[in-house]
Write a structure and sequence with these properties.
GO cellular component, one term: SLIK (SAGA-like) complex
Protein name: Transcription initiation factor TFIID subunit 6-like
Main location: nucleus
Strand content: under 5%
CATH superfamily: TAF6, C-terminal HEAT repeat domain
Radius of gyration: 17 Å
CATH topology: Serine Threonine Protein Phosphatase 5, Tetratricopeptide repeat
Low-confidence stretches: none
Mean pLDDT: 87
CATH class: Mainly Alpha
CATH architecture: Alpha Horseshoe
InterPro entries: ARM-type_fold (IPR016024), TAF6 (IPR037796), TAF6_C (IPR011442), TAF6_C_sf (IPR046344)
Order of helices and strands: HHHHHHHH
Number of strands: 0
Shape: globular
Distance between the termini: 41 Å
Pfam families: TAF6_C
Number of helices: 8
Protein backbone atom coordinates (compact mmCIF):
# COMPACT_ATOMS: atom_id res chain seq x y z
CA UNK A 1 0.00 0.00 0.00
CA UNK A 2 2.91 2.33 0.63
CA UNK A 3 4.12 1.68 -2.90
CA UNK A 4 0.68 2.57 -4.28
CA UNK A 5 0.73 5.75 -2.19
CA UNK A 6 4.18 6.63 -3.55
CA UNK A 7 3.01 6.02 -7.12
CA UNK A 8 -0.05 8.19 -6.56
CA UNK A 9 2.02 10.99 -5.06
CA UNK A 10 4.45 11.00 -8.00
CA UNK A 11 3.28 13.78 -10.35
CA UNK A 12 5.32 12.44 -13.28
CA UNK A 13 3.37 9.18 -13.51
CA UNK A 14 0.12 8.76 -15.39
CA UNK A 15 -1.69 6.06 -13.42
CA UNK A 16 -5.10 6.14 -15.07
CA UNK A 17 -4.14 3.34 -17.46
CA UNK A 18 -3.28 1.11 -14.49
CA UNK A 19 -6.22 1.73 -12.20
CA UNK A 20 -7.78 -1.59 -13.21
CA UNK A 21 -4.77 -3.26 -11.56
CA UNK A 22 -4.37 -0.91 -8.59
CA UNK A 23 -7.97 -0.63 -7.39
CA UNK A 24 -8.56 -4.36 -6.77
CA UNK A 25 -5.39 -4.58 -4.67
CA UNK A 26 -6.37 -1.59 -2.56
CA UNK A 27 -9.97 -2.79 -2.20
CA UNK A 28 -8.72 -6.20 -1.08
CA UNK A 29 -6.79 -4.55 1.74
CA UNK A 30 -9.97 -2.79 2.85
CA UNK A 31 -12.66 -5.46 2.68
CA UNK A 32 -10.84 -8.77 2.83
CA UNK A 33 -11.97 -11.11 5.59
CA UNK A 34 -8.45 -11.83 6.80
CA UNK A 35 -5.26 -9.91 6.00
CA UNK A 36 -2.87 -11.53 8.45
CA UNK A 37 -2.25 -14.83 10.17
CA UNK A 38 -3.21 -13.62 13.65
CA UNK A 39 -6.07 -11.12 13.29
CA UNK A 40 -6.64 -11.04 17.05
CA UNK A 41 -3.07 -9.80 17.61
CA UNK A 42 -1.80 -8.13 14.41
CA UNK A 43 -2.93 -4.59 13.61
CA UNK A 44 -4.65 -5.13 10.27
CA UNK A 45 -7.03 -2.31 11.23
CA UNK A 46 -4.34 0.28 10.43
CA UNK A 47 -3.83 -1.30 7.00
CA UNK A 48 -7.57 -1.09 6.33
CA UNK A 49 -7.59 2.59 7.37
CA UNK A 50 -4.57 3.41 5.19
CA UNK A 51 -6.04 1.59 2.19
CA UNK A 52 -9.37 3.41 2.73
CA UNK A 53 -7.55 6.74 2.56
CA UNK A 54 -5.82 5.57 -0.63
CA UNK A 55 -9.07 4.55 -2.31
CA UNK A 56 -10.54 7.94 -1.42
CA UNK A 57 -7.52 9.61 -3.02
CA UNK A 58 -7.97 7.45 -6.13
CA UNK A 59 -11.63 8.50 -6.31
CA UNK A 60 -10.75 12.15 -5.86
CA UNK A 61 -8.04 12.09 -8.52
CA UNK A 62 -9.52 9.79 -11.14
CA UNK A 63 -13.30 9.43 -10.81
CA UNK A 64 -15.27 10.97 -13.67
CA UNK A 65 -18.84 10.73 -14.89
CA UNK A 66 -17.56 8.40 -17.59
CA UNK A 67 -15.71 5.82 -15.47
CA UNK A 68 -17.89 6.13 -12.32
CA UNK A 69 -15.07 4.91 -10.09
CA UNK A 70 -16.42 6.48 -6.91
CA UNK A 71 -19.97 5.27 -7.42
CA UNK A 72 -18.76 1.72 -8.15
CA UNK A 73 -16.53 1.72 -5.07
CA UNK A 74 -19.34 3.16 -2.95
CA UNK A 75 -21.66 0.42 -4.18
CA UNK A 76 -19.09 -2.25 -3.29
CA UNK A 77 -18.63 -0.86 0.23
CA UNK A 78 -22.37 -0.47 0.80
CA UNK A 79 -23.19 -3.95 -0.47
CA UNK A 80 -20.63 -5.58 1.81
CA UNK A 81 -21.67 -3.45 4.79
CA UNK A 82 -25.41 -4.12 4.70
CA UNK A 83 -25.05 -7.89 4.27
CA UNK A 84 -25.92 -9.56 7.58
CA UNK A 85 -23.31 -12.28 7.06
CA UNK A 86 -20.41 -9.89 6.50
CA UNK A 87 -17.57 -10.53 8.97
CA UNK A 88 -16.64 -7.68 11.32
CA UNK A 89 -13.31 -7.09 9.59
CA UNK A 90 -15.05 -6.50 6.26
CA UNK A 91 -17.74 -4.43 7.94
CA UNK A 92 -15.06 -2.21 9.50
CA UNK A 93 -13.27 -1.77 6.17
CA UNK A 94 -16.49 -0.92 4.37
CA UNK A 95 -17.44 1.74 6.91
CA UNK A 96 -13.90 3.17 6.92
CA UNK A 97 -13.90 3.28 3.12
CA UNK A 98 -17.26 5.01 2.97
CA UNK A 99 -16.26 7.51 5.65
CA UNK A 100 -13.14 8.48 3.71
CA UNK A 101 -15.21 9.32 0.64
CA UNK A 102 -16.40 12.52 2.24
CA UNK A 103 -19.22 14.24 4.11
CA UNK A 104 -21.86 13.62 1.44
CA UNK A 105 -21.32 9.86 1.62
CA UNK A 106 -21.34 9.99 5.42
CA UNK A 107 -24.58 11.97 5.43
CA UNK A 108 -26.44 9.85 2.88
CA UNK A 109 -25.13 6.34 3.57
CA UNK A 110 -23.60 6.06 7.04
CA UNK A 111 -25.70 8.28 9.30
CA UNK A 112 -29.03 6.65 8.34
CA UNK A 113 -27.63 3.24 9.34
CA UNK A 114 -26.00 4.27 12.63
CA UNK A 115 -28.81 2.96 14.81
CA UNK A 116 -28.97 -0.41 13.04
CA UNK A 117 -25.21 -0.82 13.20
CA UNK A 118 -25.14 0.29 16.83
CA UNK A 119 -27.67 -2.39 17.73
CA UNK A 120 -25.65 -4.99 15.86
CA UNK A 121 -22.49 -3.96 17.74
CA UNK A 122 -24.32 -3.96 21.07
CA UNK A 123 -25.68 -7.46 20.48
CA UNK A 124 -22.14 -8.78 20.01
CA UNK A 125 -20.53 -6.83 22.85
CA UNK A 126 -23.30 -7.40 25.42
CA UNK A 127 -24.74 -10.69 24.18
CA UNK A 128 -23.62 -14.24 24.84
CA UNK A 129 -19.94 -14.98 24.46
CA UNK A 130 -18.95 -15.07 20.82
CA UNK A 131 -15.53 -15.54 19.33
CA UNK A 132 -12.80 -13.18 20.49
CA UNK A 133 -12.26 -12.05 16.89
CA UNK A 134 -15.93 -11.03 16.58
CA UNK A 135 -15.77 -9.13 19.85
CA UNK A 136 -12.60 -7.29 18.78
CA UNK A 137 -14.14 -6.53 15.38
CA UNK A 138 -17.36 -5.20 16.89
CA UNK A 139 -15.33 -3.04 19.27
CA UNK A 140 -13.34 -1.58 16.37
CA UNK A 141 -16.52 -0.88 14.39
CA UNK A 142 -18.01 0.83 17.44
CA UNK A 143 -14.89 2.98 17.87
CA UNK A 144 -14.88 3.87 14.18
CA UNK A 145 -18.52 4.93 14.24
CA UNK A 146 -18.15 6.92 17.45
CA UNK A 147 -15.00 8.72 16.37
CA UNK A 148 -15.79 9.39 12.73
CA UNK A 149 -19.54 9.68 12.46
CA UNK A 150 -21.02 10.47 15.84
CA UNK A 151 -18.39 12.88 17.09
CA UNK A 152 -19.32 16.53 16.80
CA UNK A 153 -17.37 18.47 14.20
CA UNK A 154 -14.36 20.36 15.51
CA UNK A 155 -14.80 24.08 16.12
CA UNK A 156 -13.73 26.33 13.25
CA UNK A 157 -10.13 27.46 13.30
CA UNK A 158 -9.57 30.99 14.47
CA UNK A 159 -7.44 33.13 12.17
CA UNK A 160 -4.15 34.22 13.74
CA UNK A 161 -4.19 37.69 15.24
Amino acid sequence: MRMVKALMDNPTLYLEKYLHEVIPAVMTCIVSRQLCLRPDVDNHWALRDFAARLIAQICKNFSTTTNNIQSRITKTFTKSWVDEKTPWTTRYGSIAGLAELGPDVIKTLILPRLQVEGERVRSVLEGPVVSNIDKIGADHVQSLLLVREAAPPPPPLQPPL
